[in-house]
Amino acid sequence: MEGGLSVSGLSARVTLLWLWWLQHWPRLVLVGTPIIFSLLPFISQTSESKCAYVIIVMAVYWMTDVVPLPVTALIPVFGYPLLDILSTSAVCQQYFRGTIMMFLGGLTVAVAVEHSNLHKRIALFVILSVGQSPRRLMVGFMTTTMFLSMWISNTAAAAMMVPIVDALLQELCKSPPAPTTPKSNDFKLKSINVDIENGLKKVDAKNFNNEPHAYDNKAMMIEDSDNINIKKSHRNNNSNNKITNLDLDIIQLEPADLKRTDSIRKSDKKETQTYTDTESKTAVSTMFMLGTAYAANLGGTAFPTGTGPNLVLWGLLQSSFSEPTSINFATWMAFNVPVMLVCVAITAVTLDVMFIGWGKWRKMPPSTPEKERSIRRVVLKSYNGLGSITFHEVAVLVLFIILVLLWVFRSPGFTTGWADLMDNDVNIGNATPAILIVFLMFVIPANPQIWPFHKNIIDDKKKKTSGNPTTTSPACLTWDAVEKGIPWGLVLLMGGGFAMAEGAAVSGLSSWIGRQLQYLSVMPHFVIVILIVTFATFLTEVVSNMTTANIFLPVVRDLALGIGMNPIFLMLPVTVACS
């Protein structure tokens, strides 16, 4: 008995300790991490150990999220100068490098696309074009999300598509109208004569035989003695129990059980299908949402500004190597666009097999023409609600295309770029065309009074005046839209990664890591790539993509240099895996 009490008391204490840990672990990690790892710079008074201390604290905070990620990214601003690694000005310069300006320009152009509703017009047009069956709708959603996430952030692309997906799901999963003919049961017994003495209900055989749910032998054979009690009698005293068209006189159904025949029939019908109505609706919703999410992630890998890890690699390559690398917009797209298309196709086929099926393995009933027309009406109504295309949308689209062309053909490598033709003494980076296009978006009016975009402006809420030529049009992009649409924390997070990498390079920590990883040179290079890409992929399941890229890519760079491998051969696959 005493042993039982001690075990019970120990279990209660462990439970209370676990609950206390769940409640207070963020504070313990926040305070304990710098205290525990502070032994590292005290034991080894070297620049490498001091820089490693700052990086370890940042990595723990990033992975546990005990402090907001952008705030953790600011640790080098005070950590490196206090530990005599980098000066304050040298650290702060990393937070606004050319790569970050290019990233900021790309984000601003994406905000302009959203501000003009151009993304909605593109999405609705694609959905109208591909068709309205569940399979075609999934392809349309994934294609649109993939394309948009190449240019705008993955989160913005997915957030823009979700309301459209939800509206179509409501129409696609709408229950059909209730039938108007049978009011209580699928079969209606006509000409019922009540025999009070016998307590039986007599059914006219002719009317019963004409019912659509009657069986071929003209008898309702229901094999459920607990639910329905069928009593048979014959006008003739024949010992044969077979019921024929002439012998059928009486079928007695319990009144309470008669009301349940409709549900029995429906349940029997559902047993022949893989999905019930509710399961089919859930499957369609899951398929559309997963397809949209996967397409947003995959689309961001195809263009350098599509997602944060791409620009982390871009900045590391520029800061680590003085000579130009082979990575530019053209070569990046040549490598990643085919990979993106293949991955999206594999994802679409996988979701289709899992939720829809083919042939005899089909899990979802085919879509009806009425349902497809209903969905098309919903999409067409939303598309027509956008009105005719405006000068605002045209201007943003033209400027966006110009920016992409300026990026791709700045210095493509396979031909002479426009930056090479200018023959300037200074280098023209990718941030220059990005900020130029952003400036033009703040200057060009969104609704100029020129043909064919001239429209009478009616302000019903204020003055109710029309056709006022002195009305000032807003610009294609406003600062309010930029303030609300730019993820400023992401900019700081990227700057923190660059500052962390710069401190590792200056302190010598990168070289030390490279020397320690030389032992991996005995392994084949493709095996190293597979192992590291797999590890980075699983790490992004618990840590954000940007955090994984900031921590992992500098180490991967040092590993490649230490074993004599081309860093791009290892860093580019890891970047795609982080995205």
UniProtKB/TrEMBL annotation:
Signal sequence extent: none
InterPro entries on file: SLC13A/DASS (IPR001898)
This protein's record includes keyword Membrane: yes
GO molecular function: citrate transmembrane transporter activity; succinate transmembrane transporter activity
Transmembrane segments: 25-44, 51-75, 95-116, 137-165, 329-355, 383-408, 428-446, 519-539, 559-578
Membrane disposition: Multi-pass membrane protein
Cellular-component GO terms for this entry: plasma membrane
Main subcellular location of this protein, as a coarse class: membrane
Protein name: Solute carrier family 13 member 5-like
Species classification: Eukaryota, Metazoa, Ecdysozoa, Arthropoda, Crustacea
